[in-house]
Amino acid sequence: MMGRSGMILAHTLYVVPCEDGSNEIETALSAGNYPASGSYIDVSGYERFHILIHLGTINASDTPIFEIKQADSVSGTLDTLSATYCKHTCAHDDDGEFILFTVEVDKLATDHHFISVVVSGVDNGSYGDIIFFGEARSLPVTQATATLPSASQHEYVG
């Protein structure tokens, strides 16, 4: 919410970890979809969304690739959104770097409002964390308790 004190992230952006089901950042990435089929993120209630990827240690034999793809259902076939703006290829020495994508929901194909990050090139033990932030059309955002419980939201504002 905006006011004299400014934006409060937990009220403005919906937070979703895009893990492989383990929700453990110390678990190596594997080639696949984050989140997996059946759990693609519905972005229909958002103006835009952001995906923040924090790379951990990258194996010298890996070249991680992250690509945002779109589908017409929570478990639909993933289609390319933009190979130019929605895809990032890392170098094997990009340890500790961040990757940030911002996508307007209106850029998705008609009836394609489910997204996932497709990861490839990580066969030898590379690490990273993928987090989705959705800019909701109406505020305040209600966070998922398992991901961001109210007891973990701290504000020193006003």
Task: Describe it.
The protein has 158 residues and is mostly beta strands. It has one domain (9-140): Jelly Rolls (Sandwich). Helix content is 3%, strand content 35%. The protein is built from 1 helix and 10 strands, in the order H-E-E-E-E-E-E-E-E-E-E. It has one helix at residues 9-12; strands at 13-17, 32-34, 41-42, 46-55, 65-71, 79-80, 87-89, 98-104, 114-120, 128-136. Strands 2, 3, 5, 6, 7 and 9 form a 6-stranded antiparallel β-sheet that branches. The chain has a 4-stranded antiparallel β-sheet with strand order 1-10-4-8. The protein is globular, with a radius of gyration of 16 Å. The relative contact order is 0.33. The model has no long low-confidence stretch (mean pLDDT 90).
Q: Radius of gyration over alpha carbons?
A: 16 Å
CATH class value = Mainly Beta
Question: What string gives the helices and strands in order?
Answer: HEEEEEEEEEE
The N- and C-terminal alpha carbons lie at a distance of 12 Å
Q: Return residue spans where pLDDT drops below 50 for at least 5 consecutive residues.
A: none
Main sheet, how many strands, which sense, barrel? Answer: 6 strands, antiparallel
How confident is the prediction overall: mean pLDDT? 90
SSE map:
Layout: H1 9-12, E1 13-17, E2 32-34, E3 41-42, E4 46-55, E5 65-71, E6 79-80, E7 87-89, E8 98-104, E9 114-120, E10 128-136
Antiparallel strand pairs: 1-10, 2-9, 3-9, 4-8, 4-10, 5-6, 5-7, 5-9
Q: What's the short story on this structure?
A:
The protein is built from 1 helix and 10 strands. By secondary structure, it is mostly beta strands.
